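Quick one, C-alpha coordinates below. Sequence please?
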Protein backbone atom coordinates (compact mmCIF):
# COMPACT_ATOMS: atom_id res chain seq x y z
CA UNK A 1 0.00 0.00 0.00
CA UNK A 2 1.28 3.48 -0.86
CA UNK A 3 0.04 7.04 -0.38
CA UNK A 4 -1.33 8.56 -3.59
CA UNK A 5 -2.74 11.91 -2.48
CA UNK A 6 -2.83 14.34 0.45
CA UNK A 7 -5.48 17.03 0.73
CA UNK A 8 -6.10 19.69 3.40
CA UNK A 9 -9.33 21.71 3.55
CA UNK A 10 -9.77 24.79 5.78
CA UNK A 11 -12.92 24.66 7.91
CA UNK A 12 -14.71 26.71 10.54
CA UNK A 13 -17.15 24.92 12.84
CA UNK A 14 -19.12 27.48 14.87
CA UNK A 15 -19.60 27.38 18.63
CA UNK A 16 -23.03 27.52 20.21
CA UNK A 17 -21.87 30.36 22.44
CA UNK A 18 -18.65 32.43 22.67
CA UNK A 19 -15.75 30.65 24.37
CA UNK A 20 -14.12 32.79 27.08
CA UNK A 21 -10.64 32.35 28.47
CA UNK A 22 -7.83 34.51 29.87
CA UNK A 23 -6.37 35.22 26.41
CA UNK A 24 -9.61 36.34 24.72
CA UNK A 25 -12.83 35.07 23.13
CA UNK A 26 -13.28 32.39 20.43
CA UNK A 27 -16.39 31.92 18.28
CA UNK A 28 -15.61 28.64 16.55
CA UNK A 29 -13.12 25.88 15.83
CA UNK A 30 -10.81 26.67 12.94
CA UNK A 31 -9.22 23.48 11.62
CA UNK A 32 -7.73 21.95 8.52
CA UNK A 33 -9.30 18.61 7.58
CA UNK A 34 -6.49 16.34 6.37
CA UNK A 35 -7.31 13.48 3.96
CA UNK A 36 -4.69 10.94 2.95
CA UNK A 37 -5.60 8.56 0.12
CA UNK A 38 -3.95 5.26 -0.75
CA UNK A 39 -3.80 3.04 -3.81
CA UNK A 40 -5.91 0.47 -1.94
CA UNK A 41 -8.84 2.88 -1.73
CA UNK A 42 -8.47 3.48 2.02
CA UNK A 43 -8.70 7.11 3.15
CA UNK A 44 -7.43 8.36 6.48
CA UNK A 45 -8.71 11.52 8.15
CA UNK A 46 -7.07 13.83 10.66
CA UNK A 47 -7.10 17.50 11.55
CA UNK A 48 -4.65 20.26 12.36
CA UNK A 49 -5.71 23.42 14.17
CA UNK A 50 -5.41 26.40 11.83
CA UNK A 51 -4.29 29.14 14.18
CA UNK A 52 -2.88 31.72 13.84
CA UNK A 53 -3.43 31.62 10.07
CA UNK A 54 -5.34 28.96 8.12
CA UNK A 55 -3.48 29.91 4.97
CA UNK A 56 -0.13 29.67 6.76
CA UNK A 57 -0.72 26.23 8.25
CA UNK A 58 -2.24 25.05 4.96
CA UNK A 59 0.94 26.09 3.13
CA UNK A 60 3.04 23.95 5.50
CA UNK A 61 0.73 20.94 5.12
CA UNK A 62 0.81 21.27 1.33
CA UNK A 63 4.60 21.39 1.48
CA UNK A 64 4.65 18.34 3.76
CA UNK A 65 2.42 16.41 1.37
CA UNK A 66 5.23 16.30 -1.19
CA UNK A 67 7.15 14.01 1.15
CA UNK A 68 4.24 11.61 1.74
CA UNK A 69 3.29 10.69 -1.82
CA UNK A 70 4.63 7.21 -2.66
CA UNK A 71 5.36 6.30 0.96
CA UNK A 72 3.98 3.30 2.82
CA UNK A 73 1.39 4.75 5.27
CA UNK A 74 2.38 2.12 7.86
CA UNK A 75 5.84 3.73 8.21
CA UNK A 76 4.50 6.52 10.40
CA UNK A 77 7.57 7.34 12.48
CA UNK A 78 9.78 7.38 9.39
CA UNK A 79 7.36 9.64 7.50
CA UNK A 80 6.95 12.10 10.37
CA UNK A 81 10.70 12.41 10.84
CA UNK A 82 11.11 12.94 7.10
CA UNK A 83 8.51 15.70 7.08
CA UNK A 84 9.92 17.45 10.15
CA UNK A 85 13.45 17.36 8.73
CA UNK A 86 12.34 18.66 5.33
CA UNK A 87 10.14 21.47 6.64
CA UNK A 88 12.31 22.68 9.49
CA UNK A 89 15.74 21.15 10.11
CA UNK A 90 16.95 21.12 6.49
CA UNK A 91 16.03 24.77 5.93
CA UNK A 92 17.86 26.33 8.82
CA UNK A 93 14.87 26.73 11.11
CA UNK A 94 16.36 23.90 13.15
CA UNK A 95 14.26 23.32 16.27
CA UNK A 96 10.55 24.13 15.77
CA UNK A 97 8.86 21.34 17.72
CA UNK A 98 5.83 23.35 18.86
CA UNK A 99 4.65 24.80 15.55
CA UNK A 100 5.89 21.71 13.75
CA UNK A 101 3.67 19.56 15.97
CA UNK A 102 0.65 21.69 15.12
CA UNK A 103 1.27 21.18 11.40
CA UNK A 104 2.06 17.47 11.64
CA UNK A 105 -0.69 16.38 14.03
CA UNK A 106 -3.34 16.10 11.33
CA UNK A 107 -1.05 14.15 9.03
CA UNK A 108 -0.14 11.66 11.76
CA UNK A 109 -3.79 11.21 12.80
CA UNK A 110 -4.75 10.42 9.20
CA UNK A 111 -1.94 7.87 8.86
CA UNK A 112 -3.04 6.05 12.01
CA UNK A 113 -6.63 6.13 10.74
CA UNK A 114 -5.47 4.29 7.62
CA UNK A 115 -3.53 1.69 9.61
CA UNK A 116 -6.49 0.94 11.88
CA UNK A 117 -8.86 0.68 8.93
CA UNK A 118 -6.46 -1.64 7.10
CA UNK A 119 -6.48 -4.05 10.03
CA UNK A 120 -10.15 -3.38 10.86
CA UNK A 121 -9.40 -2.54 14.50
CA UNK A 122 -9.16 0.50 16.77
CA UNK A 123 -5.85 2.34 16.74
CA UNK A 124 -5.39 1.70 20.47
CA UNK A 125 -4.54 -1.92 19.58
CA UNK A 126 -1.20 -0.70 18.16
CA UNK A 127 -0.27 0.97 21.45
CA UNK A 128 -0.81 -2.05 23.67
CA UNK A 129 -4.60 -1.99 23.84
CA UNK A 130 -7.06 -0.20 26.08
CA UNK A 131 -6.61 -0.55 29.84
CA UNK A 132 -10.03 0.97 30.61
CA UNK A 133 -13.58 0.89 29.24
CA UNK A 134 -14.39 4.58 29.62
CA UNK A 135 -12.79 8.01 29.95
CA UNK A 136 -13.95 10.67 32.43
CA UNK A 137 -14.23 14.33 31.49
CA UNK A 138 -14.68 17.46 33.56
CA UNK A 139 -17.59 19.84 33.26
CA UNK A 140 -16.38 22.99 31.52
CA UNK A 141 -18.72 25.92 32.27
CA UNK A 142 -18.66 29.12 30.28
CA UNK A 143 -20.00 32.63 30.67
CA UNK A 144 -19.10 36.30 30.57
CA UNK A 145 -19.73 37.02 34.26
CA UNK A 146 -19.20 35.10 37.52
CA UNK A 147 -22.95 34.59 37.76
CA UNK A 148 -23.20 33.11 34.24
CA UNK A 149 -20.24 30.81 34.84
CA UNK A 150 -21.68 29.63 38.15
CA UNK A 151 -25.09 28.94 36.60
CA UNK A 152 -23.48 26.89 33.84
CA UNK A 153 -21.30 25.09 36.38
CA UNK A 154 -24.37 23.99 38.29
CA UNK A 155 -25.78 22.48 35.09
CA UNK A 156 -22.63 20.41 34.57
CA UNK A 157 -22.69 19.33 38.19
CA UNK A 158 -26.27 18.15 37.83
CA UNK A 159 -25.32 16.19 34.68
CA UNK A 160 -22.99 14.03 36.78
CA UNK A 161 -19.55 15.54 36.22
CA UNK A 162 -17.40 14.93 39.30
CA UNK A 163 -14.82 17.56 38.31
CA UNK A 164 -15.71 21.15 37.42
CA UNK A 165 -13.05 23.16 35.59
CA UNK A 166 -13.18 26.93 35.21
CA UNK A 167 -11.16 29.56 33.39
CA UNK A 168 -9.82 32.44 35.48
CA UNK A 169 -6.91 34.84 34.96
CA UNK A 170 -9.15 37.85 34.32
CA UNK A 171 -8.03 39.96 37.29
CA UNK A 172 -7.68 39.35 41.01
CA UNK A 173 -11.11 40.64 42.06
CA UNK A 174 -12.99 38.93 39.23
CA UNK A 175 -11.16 35.63 39.72
CA UNK A 176 -12.09 35.58 43.40
CA UNK A 177 -15.73 36.24 42.53
CA UNK A 178 -15.77 33.48 39.89
CA UNK A 179 -14.25 30.87 42.20
CA UNK A 180 -16.59 31.69 45.09
CA UNK A 181 -19.69 31.79 42.86
CA UNK A 182 -18.89 28.46 41.25
CA UNK A 183 -18.16 26.71 44.54
CA UNK A 184 -21.47 27.96 45.93
CA UNK A 185 -23.31 26.76 42.82
CA UNK A 186 -21.82 23.24 42.69
CA UNK A 187 -21.84 22.56 46.42
CA UNK A 188 -19.06 21.31 48.68
CA UNK A 189 -18.55 17.82 47.26
CA UNK A 190 -17.71 18.44 43.61
CA UNK A 191 -14.02 18.77 42.75
CA UNK A 192 -13.07 22.25 41.51
CA UNK A 193 -10.10 23.03 39.25
CA UNK A 194 -9.03 26.47 38.00
CA UNK A 195 -6.98 27.53 34.98
CA UNK A 196 -5.46 31.03 34.92
CA UNK A 197 -3.75 30.35 31.55
CA UNK A 198 -0.40 31.79 32.69
CA UNK A 199 -1.99 34.89 34.25
CA UNK A 200 -1.14 34.20 37.92
CA UNK A 201 2.37 34.89 39.10
CA UNK A 202 3.29 34.09 42.70
CA UNK A 203 2.30 37.61 43.81
CA UNK A 204 -1.23 37.22 42.43
CA UNK A 205 -1.51 33.73 43.85
CA UNK A 206 -0.72 35.12 47.30
CA UNK A 207 -3.50 37.68 46.82
CA UNK A 208 -6.15 35.29 45.51
CA UNK A 209 -5.69 31.98 47.31
CA UNK A 210 -6.17 33.22 50.90
CA UNK A 211 -9.49 34.74 49.80
CA UNK A 212 -10.77 31.43 48.41
CA UNK A 213 -9.23 29.01 50.89
CA UNK A 214 -12.70 27.74 51.86
CA UNK A 215 -13.50 26.93 48.21
CA UNK A 216 -11.34 23.79 48.33
CA UNK A 217 -9.60 24.14 44.95
CA UNK A 218 -8.29 20.75 43.83
CA UNK A 219 -5.77 21.90 41.23
CA UNK A 220 -4.38 25.04 39.56
CA UNK A 221 -3.45 24.62 35.89
CA UNK A 222 -0.44 26.49 34.45
CA UNK A 223 -0.61 29.62 36.59
CA UNK A 224 2.83 30.91 35.47
CA UNK A 225 4.48 31.73 32.15
CA UNK A 226 4.73 28.74 29.81
CA UNK A 227 8.42 29.18 28.99
CA UNK A 228 9.74 28.83 32.54
CA UNK A 229 9.91 25.50 34.34
CA UNK A 230 11.52 27.25 37.31
CA UNK A 231 8.56 29.62 37.68
CA UNK A 232 6.14 26.70 37.77
CA UNK A 233 8.34 24.83 40.23
CA UNK A 234 8.46 27.91 42.44
CA UNK A 235 4.67 28.16 42.36
CA UNK A 236 4.37 24.48 43.26
CA UNK A 237 6.83 24.80 46.13
CA UNK A 238 5.02 27.81 47.59
CA UNK A 239 1.46 26.52 47.12
CA UNK A 240 -0.34 23.83 49.08
CA UNK A 241 -2.70 23.23 46.12
CA UNK A 242 -1.51 20.79 43.42
CA UNK A 243 -0.15 22.43 40.26
CA UNK A 244 -0.65 21.22 36.67
CA UNK A 245 1.68 21.94 33.74
CA UNK A 246 -0.09 22.73 30.48
CA UNK A 247 1.39 25.11 27.89
CA UNK A 248 4.82 24.27 29.33
CA UNK A 249 4.78 20.74 27.89
CA UNK A 250 4.76 19.89 24.18
CA UNK A 251 7.53 17.37 23.55
CA UNK A 252 8.73 14.24 25.33
CA UNK A 253 11.79 16.28 26.33
CA UNK A 254 9.51 18.89 27.95
CA UNK A 255 7.69 16.14 29.80
CA UNK A 256 10.94 14.63 31.03
CA UNK A 257 12.20 18.01 32.24
CA UNK A 258 8.99 18.80 34.16
CA UNK A 259 9.12 15.39 35.84
CA UNK A 260 12.85 15.68 36.59
CA UNK A 261 12.46 19.17 38.07
CA UNK A 262 9.38 18.14 40.09
CA UNK A 263 7.62 21.20 38.71
CA UNK A 264 4.08 19.79 38.51
CA UNK A 265 1.67 17.31 40.07
CA UNK A 266 -0.26 16.77 36.82
CA UNK A 267 0.57 17.18 33.12
CA UNK A 268 -2.09 18.50 30.73
CA UNK A 269 -1.35 17.49 27.16
CA UNK A 270 -3.05 17.13 23.77
CA UNK A 271 -2.32 15.75 20.31
CA UNK A 272 -1.79 19.19 18.76
CA UNK A 273 0.99 19.90 21.25
CA UNK A 274 2.78 16.59 20.73
CA UNK A 275 2.24 16.37 16.97
CA UNK A 276 0.08 13.28 17.07
CA UNK A 277 -0.49 9.97 18.80
CA UNK A 278 3.02 8.51 18.97
CA UNK A 279 4.60 11.25 21.04
CA UNK A 280 1.49 11.67 23.18
CA UNK A 281 1.89 8.06 24.31
CA UNK A 282 5.63 8.58 24.77
CA UNK A 283 4.92 11.54 27.07
CA UNK A 284 2.40 9.44 28.95
CA UNK A 285 4.97 6.70 29.55
CA UNK A 286 7.56 9.23 30.76
CA UNK A 287 5.08 10.72 33.21
CA UNK A 288 4.04 7.25 34.34
CA UNK A 289 7.58 6.49 35.48
CA UNK A 290 7.44 9.66 37.61
CA UNK A 291 4.02 8.66 39.01
CA UNK A 292 2.37 11.71 37.41
CA UNK A 293 -0.99 11.57 35.66
CA UNK A 294 -1.71 12.83 32.15
CA UNK A 295 -4.80 14.94 31.54
CA UNK A 296 -6.19 15.22 27.98
CA UNK A 297 -5.98 18.82 26.77
CA UNK A 298 -8.49 20.31 24.36
CA UNK A 299 -8.07 23.08 21.81
CA UNK A 300 -10.23 24.53 19.02
CA UNK A 301 -10.95 21.15 17.49
CA UNK A 302 -13.69 18.87 16.23
CA UNK A 303 -14.68 15.33 17.09
CA UNK A 304 -11.79 14.02 14.99
CA UNK A 305 -9.31 15.06 17.66
CA UNK A 306 -11.61 13.82 20.42
CA UNK A 307 -11.67 10.37 18.82
CA UNK A 308 -7.92 10.29 18.25
CA UNK A 309 -7.28 11.35 21.85
CA UNK A 310 -9.75 8.72 23.06
CA UNK A 311 -7.70 6.04 21.29
CA UNK A 312 -4.36 6.84 22.92
CA UNK A 313 -5.71 8.02 26.28
CA UNK A 314 -7.36 4.63 26.67
CA UNK A 315 -3.94 2.89 26.78
CA UNK A 316 -2.42 5.05 29.55
CA UNK A 317 -2.57 3.59 33.08
CA UNK A 318 -1.82 7.09 34.42
CA UNK A 319 -4.70 8.88 32.65
CA UNK A 320 -6.36 11.50 34.85
CA UNK A 321 -10.09 11.26 35.60
CA UNK A 322 -10.90 14.90 34.78
CA UNK A 323 -10.09 15.35 31.08
CA UNK A 324 -10.99 18.19 28.74
CA UNK A 325 -13.96 17.77 26.40
CA UNK A 326 -14.44 20.50 23.76
CA UNK A 327 -17.22 19.00 21.65
CA UNK A 328 -20.09 20.39 23.66
CA UNK A 329 -19.03 23.86 22.48
CA UNK A 330 -19.65 22.96 18.82
CA UNK A 331 -22.94 23.93 17.20
CA UNK A 332 -22.50 20.83 15.02
CA UNK A 333 -19.63 18.49 14.18
CA UNK A 334 -17.96 17.19 11.01
CA UNK A 335 -18.21 13.59 12.19
CA UNK A 336 -21.12 11.46 13.36
CA UNK A 337 -20.73 12.61 16.95
CA UNK A 338 -23.33 10.32 18.50
CA UNK A 339 -20.35 8.15 19.49
CA UNK A 340 -19.10 11.02 21.67
CA UNK A 341 -22.11 11.26 23.96
CA UNK A 342 -21.23 11.59 27.64
CA UNK A 343 -23.06 9.77 30.40
CA UNK A 344 -22.39 11.16 33.87
CA UNK A 345 -19.31 12.86 32.45
CA UNK A 346 -17.92 9.66 30.93
CA UNK A 347 -17.39 8.40 27.37
CA UNK A 348 -16.89 4.81 26.29
CA UNK A 349 -13.56 3.90 24.72
CA UNK A 350 -14.20 3.78 20.98
CA UNK A 351 -14.26 0.40 19.28
CA UNK A 352 -14.61 1.30 15.59
CA UNK A 353 -11.87 0.75 13.01
CA UNK A 354 -9.14 3.35 12.69
CA UNK A 355 -9.74 6.40 14.85
CA UNK A 356 -13.34 5.23 15.25
CA UNK A 357 -15.45 7.87 13.47
CA UNK A 358 -17.35 8.44 10.23
CA UNK A 359 -17.00 11.76 8.39
CA UNK A 360 -20.14 13.84 7.82
CA UNK A 361 -19.37 15.16 4.34
CA UNK A 362 -22.37 17.49 4.29
CA UNK A 363 -21.13 19.24 7.42
CA UNK A 364 -17.58 19.35 6.03
CA UNK A 365 -18.90 21.26 3.02
CA UNK A 366 -20.86 23.58 5.28
CA UNK A 367 -17.78 24.24 7.44
CA UNK A 368 -15.68 24.98 4.35
CA UNK A 369 -18.28 27.47 3.15
CA UNK A 370 -18.08 29.23 6.53
CA UNK A 371 -14.32 29.44 6.13
CA UNK A 372 -14.65 30.91 2.63
CA UNK A 373 -17.17 33.46 3.89
CA UNK A 374 -14.73 34.48 6.66
CA UNK A 375 -12.01 35.50 4.19
CA UNK A 376 -14.20 37.55 1.86
Amino acid sequence: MIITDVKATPLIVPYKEPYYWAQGVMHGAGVLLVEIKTDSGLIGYGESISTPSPQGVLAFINEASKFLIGENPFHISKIMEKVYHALFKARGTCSSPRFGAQVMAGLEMALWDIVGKAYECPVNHFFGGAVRDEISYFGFPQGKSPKEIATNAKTFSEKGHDVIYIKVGTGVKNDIEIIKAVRLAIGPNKRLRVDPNEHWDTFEMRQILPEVVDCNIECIEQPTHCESISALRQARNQCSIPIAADQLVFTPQDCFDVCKEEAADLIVLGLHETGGLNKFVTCGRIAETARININIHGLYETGITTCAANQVASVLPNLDDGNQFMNHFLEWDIIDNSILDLKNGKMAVLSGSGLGFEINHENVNKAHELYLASIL
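Residues 3-120+360-374 form a domain with the Enolase-like; domain 1 fold (CATH 3.30.390.10). The mean pLDDT is 94.
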